[in-house]
Amino acid sequence: MLKILTVFGTRPEAVKMAPLVQELNRRPDQIRSLVAVTAQHREMLDQVLQLFDIQPDYDLNIMQQGQTLYDVTVRALEGLKEVLIKSNPDLVLVHGDTTTTFVAALAAYYRQIPVGHVEAGLRTHNKYSPFPEEMNRHLTGALAEYHFAPTQQAMQNLLKENVNPDNIFVTGNTVIDALKATVKENYVFTDPLLNKIDFGRQRVLLVTTHRRENLGQPMREIYLALKEIAETYPDVAVVFPVHKNPAVRRVALEILGHLPRVHLIEPLQYEPFINLMQRCHLVLTDSGGLQEEAPALGKPVLVLRHTTERPEAVAAGTVKLVGTEREVVLAVTKQLLDNPQAYRAMAEAVNPYGDGQASRRIVDFLCYKFHLADRPPEEFWPQK
Predict the structure, then answer these.
(1) 375 belongs to a structural domain
(2) Are residues 19 and 165 in the same domain?
(3) Domain match, 308 and 362 both
(4) What is the mean pLDDT of residues 122-143?
(5) How would you class 144 by CB atoms within 10 Å of its CB: exposed for 0-12, middle for 13-18, buried for 19 or more?
(6) CA-based max dimension of the chain
(7) Alpha helix (H) ranges present in 40-151?
(8) Contact indicator for 311, 153 with CB cutoff of 8 Å
(9) How does 34-50 read in b/e, with b if 16+ C-beta sit within 10 Å?
(10) Which key words are in the record (predicted)?
């Protein structure tokens, strides 16, 4: 029996690890699956746990008002020490690039427990962008034994860093697994405002912004571009789930709060957000994960950042890296609104991030590595 402890702490991690936890739970004859959450983000994490019916075996509940990266790091490291002593797993699985991810890998390393890194190998090669995620991912990779790269490009990044090729496996991204289980054709929103939007007649722009490096003037530039778009196109509506950070909310309300077809709403839970994205026309975001999710639904993505750790999407044509300057954001958005051919080129491009089978591949690979299966599974190759 292989004992695997899966550790995560934020909503994005939970979304991407939930289908993997479910896959582990489908192998009770081979695997004992345990889950630990740091609750680095409490409320948003709980929403995903409920949606995917995951009950953690260990909950550190570390979130505090006004917490800093120092606070999260110290509390998670101390808490996970005790979890690892109690659970004594054969393997720890972590995901991506959060502080929880890096700290869990470090805690496992201190106890000489191998680490499997899901969504490994993404790189911008700028340690301050995204911050602190780029270095969290680098450091986790240095500590990990097994590297589950979502794409061939991510695998190449790891090979350039001299990672043992026998321990790299290309899986696709587990977020596509989660997405396919969540989109519903006749989904009804609990928010009456969203149910009133005529998605058939209005072109809805879905907007999210939250990155630390965009706070201040970059966000003002983005919101001024959105203001001009809303004032120029009468058939365009903007739906903007506004991050709870006061620095984001203050500027969003100042610039966009008075516009009739700009809807500033509270952050959405994962299920309504994904179903909103499925109905929108275009996504503008500084998020990393949406660069993978939206193209799976045929939605072009304009990335409001100057760097991306997901160059495969840029190369595939599913996203455009536009930065934060008002004139650039405005020009590229107008191009997609005015030019149906340019829009279709992005909407119909092949998403390079997965086929919904990443979780199965990861568990099959681990079963092979731990001598519970005779042969490894086939790696993920995107369709041409």
Answers:
(1) no
(2) yes
(3) no
(4) 95
(5) buried
(6) 63
(7) 43-51, 69-87, 99-110, 133-143
(8) yes
(9) bbbbbbbbbebbbbbbe
(10) Isomerase
Same domain, 136 and 249: no
- In the chain, the percentage of residues whose pLDDT exceeds 70 is 99
User: Can you give the pLDDT at residue 150?
Assistant: 95
Token pair listed for 148: 């589950």
Query: Which residues neighbour 314 within 8 Å (Cβ) at sequence distance 6 or greater?
Result: 308, 320, 321
pLDDT average, residue stretch 186-206 = 95
* pTM for the whole structure: 0.84
Per-residue pLDDT tens for 248-280?
Answer: 999 999 999 999 999 999 999 999 999 999 999
Active site residues: 97, 119, 133, 210, 212, 243
Above pLDDT 90, what percent of the chain? Answer: 89
**Non-local CB neighbours of 357 within 8 Å, separated by 6+ positions:** 172, 177, 380
Say what the pLDDT of residue 21 is: 98
Number of domains in the chain: 2
Q: For the segment 98-117, what is each residue's pLDDT rounded down to a tens digit? A: 999 999 999 999 999 999 99
Q: How far apart are CA 316 and CA 227, in angstroms?
A: 29
Instruction: Look at residue 381 and tell me if it is in a domain.
Output: no
Does residue 61 sit in helix, strand or coil? coil
Same-domain pairing of 165 and 295: no
Residue type, 193: L
CATH code, domain carrying 269 = 3.40.50.2000
Is residue 144 within 8 A of residue 113, CB to CB? The reply is: no
| Tokens 């690890």 sit on residue | 17
Residue range of the domain that includes 167? 2-173+354-370
